[in-house]
């Protein structure tokens, strides 16, 4: 004769197993939709001060219909000037994430200076320093003749905020924003001058 208690336990066990299988099936697709965490954002969150992941110079352009909302940044630059993304409308904006001891940053710095001069008030260049305190950053800027402002982001708040728009993944990373303030292109690693110039021209001349 079958023990009623044993039969009831077996039925409960089957229900529990079935519920686990159904829930598991619901959870797996959701997990698959979550992308891998941006490595630079992870470093900023961990606060390990490494702040350097090598980029390969790769370029990614974003079609107007695939761009995110306009980038929003409010900060104070090393020179005391106010940085407000609300002021960027109507021009191209170049955000360059860097720090002084980063070898690729030193390679691309002269190109940034030359392009800043070439584009004048048609494009706004802004540096985002991910590691240095004020003295080290300003020494770098003097050494390379950088006139455009840079913002200190050693705590990683801007880097983390940028994950809403496009993953950074490397230092240096350069983002080109269109005339609406949306990310139109990303360069991972040292930016080639000719390539960056073409990306800025595209942002300035495209019909949105």
From TrEMBL:
**Could you tell me which Pfam families the record lists for this protein?**
AhpC-TSA (PF00578)
**InterPro entries given in the database record:** AhpC/TSA, TAT_signal, Thioredoxin-like_sf, Thioredoxin_domain, Thioredoxin_ResA/DsbE_sf
Query: Where does it localize?
Result: Cell envelope
Q: Where is the Thioredoxin domain?
A: 63-205
Enumerate the UniProt keywords alphabetically: Cytochrome c-type biogenesis, Disulfide bond, Redox-active center, Signal-anchor, Transmembrane
Q: Which PROSITE patterns match?
A: TAT (PS51318), THIOREDOXIN_2 (PS51352)
Source organism (scientific name): Paeniglutamicibacter terrestris
On whether Transmembrane is a keyword of this UniProt record, the answer is yes
Name recorded for this polypeptide:
TlpA family protein disulfide reductase
């Amino acid at each position: 004769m079958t023990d009623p208690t044993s039969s009831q336990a077996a039925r409960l066990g089957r229900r529990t197993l079935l519920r686990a299988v159904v829930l598991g099936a619901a959870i797996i697709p959701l997990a698959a939709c979550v992308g891998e965490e941006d490595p630079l954002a992870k470093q900023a969150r961990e606060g390990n001060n490494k702040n350097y992941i090598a980029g390969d110079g790769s370029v990614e352009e974003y079609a107007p219909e695939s761009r995110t909302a306009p980038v929003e940044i409010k900060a104070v630059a090393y020179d005391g000037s106010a940085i407000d993304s609300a002021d960027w409308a109507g021009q191209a904006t170049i955000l360059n994430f860097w720090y002084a001891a980063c070898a690729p940053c030193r390679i691309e710095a002269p190109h940034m200076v030359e392009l800043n001069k070439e584009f004048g008030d048609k494009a706004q260049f802004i540096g985002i320093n991910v590691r240095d305190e004020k003295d080290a950053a300003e020494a770098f800027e003097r050494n390379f003749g950088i006139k455009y402002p840079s913002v200190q982001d050693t705590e990683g708040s801007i880097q983390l905020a940028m994950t809403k728009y496009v993953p950074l993944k490397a230092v240096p990373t350069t983002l080109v924003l269109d005339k609406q303030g949306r990310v139109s292109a990303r360069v991972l690693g040292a930016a080639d001058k000719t390539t960056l110039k073409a990306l800025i021209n595209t942002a300035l001349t495209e019909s949105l």
